[in-house]
Amino acid sequence: MLEVQGLTKHFKGLTAVSGVSFSVAEGEISALIGPNGAGKTTTFNMIAGALVPSEGRISFDGRDITGLDPEVIAAAGISRTFQVVRPMVGMTVLENAMVGALAKGLDMAEAKADALAALDMVGLARRAGNEASSLTLPDRKMLEIARCLARKPRLLLLDEAMAGLRPSEADVLISVLRELNAQGLTILLIEHVMRVVMSLAGRVAVLHHGELIATGKPQEIVENPIVIESYLGRRKVEAGQ
Ligand SMILES: Nc1ncnc2c1ncn2[C@@H]1O[C@H](COP(=O)(O)OP(=O)(O)OP(=O)(O)O)[C@@H](O)[C@H]1O
């Protein structure tokens, strides 16, 4: 469904992403992992159209989407969440979720119906009339996902959706993502929590200093000596384990 070939991004003197190639098959949950500054968010930004690649090609459903406007890419069926979730203050949960559907060009009634369906999928329907800024962090994360779902994407890009959640809260999000995937949604997630990666992802790509250093099944990745040396082992040392 998604194919990234030789993706590269230079920021003045810095190469944030360098010749990265990977693909995501329809129906899969895949993860992009790697240390801070490895180039994960920059890769997402290029896929979603927020950044134009310096080199390389991105195709979605066989169509070249490299460098297209974010709105065109969203209309093609790719929707992304942001690391920092900031719902629009002064607007209800439903109105926030409607933003995605309205951006697609739907009329109010259609946008409301799709937003309510999206809120239902993430368990937020009963909060539809609440002020969005009153939501807890886990619910804000769910709202961010609902905003994307209201656009009815085929590929969802999740940027560290679990960050800041307690293990029990992460478990709720994991089961929501599993259910969305079971309903046919393809998911690519950036994730630092390996427990989440292991339990959700069918395939994993590892970035380090902007380069792809490994791809494979989660079990292969955690046993890969290069990944252990450059990322996983280092994290254990940092955590004092
Ligand atoms: N707009 C920008 N201008 C200049 N440098 C940037 C820009 N965006 C990212 N970078 C740099 O590119 C590198 C990759 O950053 P990126 O945010 O993609 O990493 P990441 O893997 O997502 O990290 P994290 O896990 O901390 O979110 C970093 O060195 C970062 O400082």
Automatic annotation (TrEMBL):
<dbReference type="GO" id="GO:0015192">
    <property type="term" value="F:L-phenylalanine transmembrane transporter activity"/>
</dbReference>
<dbReference type="InterPro" id="IPR051120">
    <property type="entry name" value="ABC_AA/LPS_Transport"/>
</dbReference>
<dbReference type="GO" id="GO:0042941">
    <property type="term" value="P:D-alanine transmembrane transport"/>
</dbReference>
<keyword id="KW-0067">ATP-binding</keyword>
<dbReference type="GO" id="GO:0005304">
    <property type="term" value="F:L-valine transmembrane transporter activity"/>
</dbReference>
<dbReference type="InterPro" id="IPR003439">
    <property type="entry name" value="ABC_transporter-like_ATP-bd"/>
</dbReference>
<dbReference type="GO" id="GO:0016887">
    <property type="term" value="F:ATP hydrolysis activity"/>
</dbReference>
<keyword id="KW-0813">Transport</keyword>
<dbReference type="InterPro" id="IPR027417">
    <property type="entry name" value="P-loop_NTPase"/>
</dbReference>
<protein>
    <submittedName>
        <fullName>Branched-chain amino acid transport system ATP-binding protein</fullName>
    </submittedName>
</protein>
<feature type="domain" description="ABC transporter">
    <location>
        <begin position="2"/>
        <end position="234"/>
    </location>
</feature>
<dbReference type="InterPro" id="IPR003593">
    <property type="entry name" value="AAA+_ATPase"/>
</dbReference>
<dbReference type="GO" id="GO:1903806">
    <property type="term" value="P:L-isoleucine import across plasma membrane"/>
</dbReference>
<dbReference type="Pfam" id="PF00005">
    <property type="entry name" value="ABC_tran"/>
</dbReference>
<keyword id="KW-0547">Nucleotide-binding</keyword>
<dbReference type="GO" id="GO:0015808">
    <property type="term" value="P:L-alanine transport"/>
</dbReference>
<dbReference type="GO" id="GO:0015188">
    <property type="term" value="F:L-isoleucine transmembrane transporter activity"/>
</dbReference>
<dbReference type="GO" id="GO:1903805">
    <property type="term" value="P:L-valine import across plasma membrane"/>
</dbReference>
<dbReference type="Pfam" id="PF12399">
    <property type="entry name" value="BCA_ABC_TP_C"/>
</dbReference>
<dbReference type="GO" id="GO:0005886">
    <property type="term" value="C:plasma membrane"/>
</dbReference>
<dbReference type="InterPro" id="IPR032823">
    <property type="entry name" value="BCA_ABC_TP_C"/>
</dbReference>
<dbReference type="GO" id="GO:0005524">
    <property type="term" value="F:ATP binding"/>
</dbReference>
